Description:
Blueprint: E1 2-6, H1 10-21, E2 25-29, H2 36-39, E3 43-46, H3 50-59, E4 69-72, H4 78-84, E5 93-99, E6 120-125, H5 132-144, E7 149-152, H6 155-177, H7 191-197, H8 204-213, H9 215-238, H10 241-264
Parallel strand pairs: 1-2, 1-3, 3-4, 4-5, 6-7
Antiparallel strand pairs: 5-6
Helix pairs in contact: 6-9
Amino acid sequence: xxxxxxxxxxxxxxxxxxxxxxxxxVAGLHHGDCGEKLxxxxxxxxxxxxxxxVPWIAAHRNDFRKGAVVVDICGTKRNIMRAIxxxxxxxxxxxxxxxxxGREVSGYENSLAGLxxxxxxxxxxxxxxxxxxxxxxxxxxxxxxxxxxxxxxxAKTHDSMIAFTSQLCHVIATSYSRDPKVARSLGFSAGSYxxxxxxxxxxxxxxxxxxxxxxxxxxxxxxxxxxxxxEMRGAIASGDEKKLKRMIREGTxxxxxxxxxxxxx
Length: 265
């Protein structure tokens, strides 16, 4: 497949490297370098910061070839889908995308051809849907670069779930790492501490925009999480071992069910 990757940071660079490794005809577009590389592409991956995605697509709406598919990689979808619905499409199709993969570092120099191995790729068609053959073509491409599964969802479902599975985790990691004890943790930490704080080294510009672009969904999951934390704190403070054991059992059971479902797929 002829692929153009616009934006060669961590994710764009990884798509560029992974697609090349998989044997696709790939062009990397950076700093406005487009021309024939863009007009020839069957698939255009727009791997830019959230605020740059729609303006770039709108500016190049007449440069995409007829039949091309344009996919973004923004971590929130309702705002992108609303804005892109107003862009005139001359024979090309837009489908929102979100690769569930990343690293705690940024930049092309940190991109990896194997970044997407075993990950999920979420696709969000516009409200009028997308042809089955287009979705099938995209699924084949994304699996060819390493993704284990492709999930199709609407924008609202995507944003609600991502608030829980991604953004909440980053908020927790940031909040945890702001504690003064972090500076004194050397020699007192093991795997659990490392796992919980690994994603605390976030890009402040990107992540603050992602949080605010999905604030209604994120506040809901934060409120629910804070309530559960308060319940556990109360049980510990009052010495209520029975209640504490119940909550531990509930968490263990829920995680075991999730792990069983993953292994069954």
